[in-house]
Structure formats: C-alpha cells, structure tokens
Specification:
The chain is α/β, with parallel strands linked by helices. The protein has ten helices and eight strands. Helix 1 packs across helix 3, helix 2 packs across helix 5 and helix 8 packs parallel to helix 9. The structure holds zinc ion.
C-alpha cells in the first residue's frame, strides 16, 4: 500500500514537472497540435469521442491495445499522455480506477468525465468488484457493448461534455451525435434480425462482460470462466463450472484477447465445448476492430457463428 502511494506520488511529480517538455516535444510533429486533446481510458470510448468530436478535437486512448483495464496500472508514459489532455474520460464503476486516481491528483488542471456516474447500471454479475479497493459495487461497467445504451445514454453524455468545454463547436458536436445515433440504431436493427434466429442463446463468458448486450438481444451469459476479472480462476471454481456446464448443457465459451485463454481451454476440453474469441475493446491498430462499428460487427459475427 505504501509502495503504491509512493509510486503514484512519483508519477505525479514526473507529470507535473514534465508537462511543458511534453507539450514542446509534440508541437512540432503533431499536425493536430492546435486542437484540444481528449484522453479516454479505453479504445471504444475514444472512438465514440472521435466520431462526436470530428475534426474539432484530438482523441488519445490511454490503455494500450491488448491490455486489460482490470490489470492495468499507470506508468509515467500514460501519465505524460494524460498531461497533454484538457479532458479525461473514464468509464468508472471500477473498470478504470487507475485513471480516476490520477484525475483526482490533477484536480483543477483538467476536466474529468466519469461516464457511469449518474447512470443506472446493471448489477455486476462477477463475484466481486473489478477493483477490490472500492468497497461498494456500483454496477456493471461494460456499458459500451450495447449499441442502444450507447445511443441513448453514453453518446449524449460524451457530446454534452464536449459541448460544455468547447461551446463554440456545440453545433458540430450535436450534428455528429445525431449521425452517430442513426448508425447505432442501424447496427442495433441489423443485429436484432440476426439474433432472432439463434438456435442457442446461452453461453459462458470469460469474464462478466456481456450483460448489457445479452439483455438487449435476449442472450444469456450464464457464468464466467474467471471468478474475479483480474485473477486466474481457482481449481475449485473451474470444477464447479464444469459441473454447471454439464448439468445445463452449455457448450459455447467466449474468451477475450486481453486474457490468458488457458483456463477456458481446459474447461472446453472437459465439457466438449467450443471456444470463440469476442473482443470488448479492439484498438487503433487491431485489424478489423479499429473503430466502434467494426468492433461491434466483429463481435456480432462471432456471436452468429457460435450461436446460430
Ligand atoms: Zn471487464
């Protein structure tokens, strides 16, 4: 605990003293240097911000592609990235507490938006909270994985936040928001049609990720391979899972690229199940999943392949 605090203080010290140097270093090479920088913790949120902000802002993703927000700790590299930003956007509800901690340390120096604050969340089905340092379970943070939740809640919150900070671009943000909401509605309609014909509606997820998507399309995430999002499951947990899968005749297991697939492979072998890869995060350099819509279409195509 003491070590963590010391590390955080060190990061903040680096961040505060390094601020000007970072600005100078990026002014010459970045063509977007005139634009205000918005920092988002995870890629899907960054992409939504990009679509709403259009050419008025520059958006940077904090979490490197392939990393899990549940494991992540801020390094000086990310601290420097944050220091360029005028606005830090996190999901909250325990998904990305590392960003919230940094933002608190920077109070007054940059604006902060925690998307899930003020939203009614689904209960988090995982046995414990993503961040065990947070005592009360605020709910399930995986809110971006349901296009309608994004259309009705997340996207308007992002647009409002941008509009508050840069009122001169309010009109552009609102136009972009409407355009985005239309596309989200289309995405939802097309997946509703696909999902209506699924032969199987139940699956085992890798960690408790798909509750919003499941609720929207009548799919059921029965249980997760991981007992806790950030930890390898115990032998006892896996044994219980094998029994459950046999009793309920579950055969579809979805893993995620950000986690070690081994426990899911063991489970699949034991129950004669099949393993597919869903991706809740994508990334700028992840081929075929490098914007929100590509990412969601990828996931929908995997769901179709597995559940049809
Ligand atoms: Zn998660």
């Amino acid at each position: 605990m003491k070590d963590k605090l010391a590390a955080l203080l060190l990061i903040l010290a680096i961040l505060l003293s390094g601020c000007n140097a970072v600005e100078k270093a990026t002014v010459s090479d970045a063509k977007d240097s005139e634009k205000p920088v918005v920092v988002a913790t995870i890629f899907p949120i960054a992409d939504l911000l990009k679509q709403i902000g259009g050419d008025k802002i520059e958006v940077i993703t904090l979490l490197p592609a392939g990393a899990s927000p549940h494991h992540f700790e801020i390094t000086p590299k990310e601290a420097k990235i944050i220091s360029r930003g005028k606005l830090l956007v996190s999901v909250g509800a325990g998904l990305d507490p590392w960003a919230e901690r940094i933002a608190k340390g920077l109070a007054g120096q940059m604006a902060e938006l925690v998307i899930s604050d003020g939203l009614t969340l689904l209960p988090f089905k995982g046995k414990d909270h993503h961040d065990q340092n947070i005592p009360a379970n605020k709910g399930d943070p995986h809110i971006w994985l349901d296009p309608i939740f994004v259309k009705e809640k997340v996207a308007p919150i992002l647009a409002e936040s941008l509009g508050d900070l840069w009122p001169q671009h309010q009109g552009a943000f609102q136009n972009n928001l409407l355009n985005l909401q239309e596309q989200l509605e289309e995405l939802h309609q097309s997946f509703t049609q696909l999902a209506a014909d699924f032969a199987e509606r139940r699956f085992i997820s890798f960690h408790s990720t798909w509750a919003y998507l499941g609720k929207r399309y009548d799919l059921s995430e029965v249980e997760s391979v991981l007992e806790y999002p950030g930890e390898e499951p115990s032998a006892g947990w896996l044994a219980g899972l094998i029994k459950l899968a046999q009793r309920e005749q579950l055969g579809i297991i979805f893993i995620e690229p950000q986690f070690n697939p081994k426990p899911a492979e063991i489970l699949a072998q034991e129950i004669g199940g099949r393993v597919f890869i869903l991706d809740p995060l994508g990334g700028e350099n992840v081929d075929g999943r490098d914007d929100y819509f590509k990412l969601m279409n990828y996931n929908f195509s995997i769901l179709q392949e597995a559940l049809k």
